[in-house]
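writing this on my phone so excuse typos. first protein, seq and then structure
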Amino acid sequence: MTTLLAEISRLHYPRPPASPAQIAAFETRVGWVLDEDLRAFYLHCNGATLFAPLPDVNYHLLPLERIVRARVAILGRDEDGAGPASHYCVVDMQDGDYVIVDVAQRAGASLPLFDAWHETYPATKRIASSFGEFLEKALSSGNESFWLDG
C-alpha cells in the first residue's frame, strides 16, 4: 500500500488525511471496521480522485463522510428490497457505476470489492479481493474501468 499511496500523492488528487477520530466516528456510524488497506488509505487521504480533479473524473474514491449503503446511493432507498445492507459504496465512477465493498464477505483481513451499476443493482460483479488490489489495477488502468470488457 505504501507505494500505491505515494503514487496517489505524487500523480493524482488526494484530499487531506482522515484523523483516527474521524475513522472511529465513521466505524461507529456504519457499524463495521475498515480493513487494513482501507484504514491505510484513509489515514493517508480522506478520499481522492484519480487522473483528474472533480468534476471531470472517473475514479472518485469517496471520503468517509460520503460512504453510505449502496442501496441508498444507487436506488435512494434504505430498505431490504433495494439490496443488501452489507453493501457500501467506496468509489463513485460518476456515470451511475459504483465500486462497493460487501462487509458480509470479509475474506480474512480484507474486504472484497464489487462493481455495482445502477441499471442492474443489486446484482454485482467481483472485481478485486482487496482495496489494495483494486487500487493497483485502477492506477494502472489509464483512467478506464479496468473490469469492463472492451
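second protein below, same order as before
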Amino acid sequence: MTDNDRSRFVRGRLAATGLDDVRRELVDVDGGRGRVAVRARYVSATGHVVEHEQTVTVEPGGRLRVDERVVVPAALTDIPRVGVQMATVPGFTEVAWVGDGPHECYPDRRSSALTGRWSARVAELAVPYIRPQENGGRTGVVHVELRRDDGAVVVLDADRPMQLNVAHVTTADLAAATHVWRLRQRQETIVHLDVAHRGLGTASVGPDLPSRYRVGPGSYSWTWWLGTATG
C-alpha cells in the first residue's frame, strides 16, 4: 500500500460520511460554582449527527477536570477517531509522555512499541510520508507534558490509555498538502487525545481492516485533566 493509496482511501470514506465538512451547533450551556456543562451537536454534510456533552469542573488547586460523552449514530460504522483536539500558544516545542513509544504506533501497529516514559521535540514525532497523512501517533498514553523554553509546562492526564498525536500541523493542513515538503509548520502545537482511534490498515490493497481496529457507532465516555506546572 502506497502513501497515495491510503490518502485517497481515507479521503473517500470521509467524503462518503460527510465528516470532512461538519458544522457545530450549540444546544445548551449550564453552569455555576466552578462547573460548566456544554451540550453540542456536530452535523455532517450528509446529515449525520454526533452528540457531544462536555462538563468542565475546576478542582482545588486550579486543575480542570473534563468529563466527555460522545454519541456516534448507527449509520457511522467506520470513522477515524473520537476524542478532543486543542492547540497551545506558540513555544511548546518539547513533549514527554507516559505510554507507548518511542516510535510511531497505532492500534493495529503497536506490537513493537514499549510502554514507558518518553520525551522528544514535537517536530521529531512526525513521520515524513511522501503524501501527508495521519502520522506520529502514540498508543496507550495516560500522561502528557508539553514544555516551553521558559519552563512553562502544560500537563494532560487521562483516566484510561488514550491515542496521542502532537504536531505543528493540523489535520486540515495534512489533507491540503499534496507533498510533504509543501507542509508549513505552525508555531502552535496541535494536540489530539483520542479515546478511540481507527487503525491504519485499509482495503486499498488486500483485505480491509479487522473490525476490532475500527471506530463505530455507540456512546463514548471518558475523563481527562488539564493543568500547568513549572520546571
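Helices lie at 3-17, 171-176. thats all i got for now
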